[in-house]
Amino acid sequence: MQGLRLAALSLACILAWAPRAATGAERVIVALGDSLTAGSGVLPDEAYPARLEARLKREGYAYRVVTAGVSGDTTAGAVRRVEWVLRAAPEVAIVALGANDGLRGQPTDRMRANLVEIVGRLRAGGVRVLLAGMRVPPNYGEAFTRAFAAVFPDVARQTRVPLMPFLLEGVATEPRLTQPDGIHPNADGHRVIADRLWPYLRPLLQE
Questions:
Q1: Among residues 73, 101, 184, 190, which one is catalytic?
Q2: How many Å apart are CA 52 and CA 58, to the nearest integer?
Q3: For residue 191, which of 35, 169, 176, 206 sits 20 to 30 Å off, Cα-Cα?
Q4: Which of 35, 71, 101, 190 is catalytic?
Q5: Which CATH number among 3.40.50.920, 3.40.50.300, 3.30.450.40, 3.40.50.1110 corresponds to the domain 2-204?
C-alpha cells in the first residue's frame, strides 16, 4: 500500500511538470532531483529552480526552468523519470540526486551506477548536464560518508560533465538557512543554493 501511495505521488509530481508547448524563443533547463529541488516546505517561487529562472530572465537568457523534483526520490527512481525529462526537450539538466540514497544507507556502487545511467541518457539526448554533489551526516560512519562523497566526482569524471561539489554548500548545518528539520533549506537557503549554482550553470548556457 505504501508503495502504491509513493507511486501515485510520483506520478502526480511528474504530471505537474510534464512538458508544455514552448514558444519559439524559449529554451528549457530541467532541475532533476528530490525534495531539495522540489522545494519542500517553501513556496514554489522560493525554491532554487524558480530563483534560477528569475536570475536567467534578469541576465537576459531566454530559458524556462522546469522543476522535476520529487520528494523522497532516489537515484533509482530518477532513472525511471529520465524519459519524461527528455520529453521537455531540455538544453541543460541539473542533476541533484543522492540524498535519499544516503539517508537510506543504499549501497554507493548502486547509486553510482544509477547516476552514470541518468547522466549518460541525458547526454545521449543532447542535453548538457551539471551534476550536483551531496553529502551525508558524519553519524553514518567515516567509511560510508567518504565512499558516498566520492561517488559524485567519480561520476563527473566518468561521464565528463561539470560538478558542483555540494548542492548545500553554505546551507547545511546553518540553522538560519534551514527549516526546523535541520535538513531542508528555507527560502533564504534556497537563495544561497541558487547563487552558488549560478557560476557552474552559466558556462552551459547559450546566449
A1: 184
A2: 10
A3: 206
A4: 35
A5: 3.40.50.1110
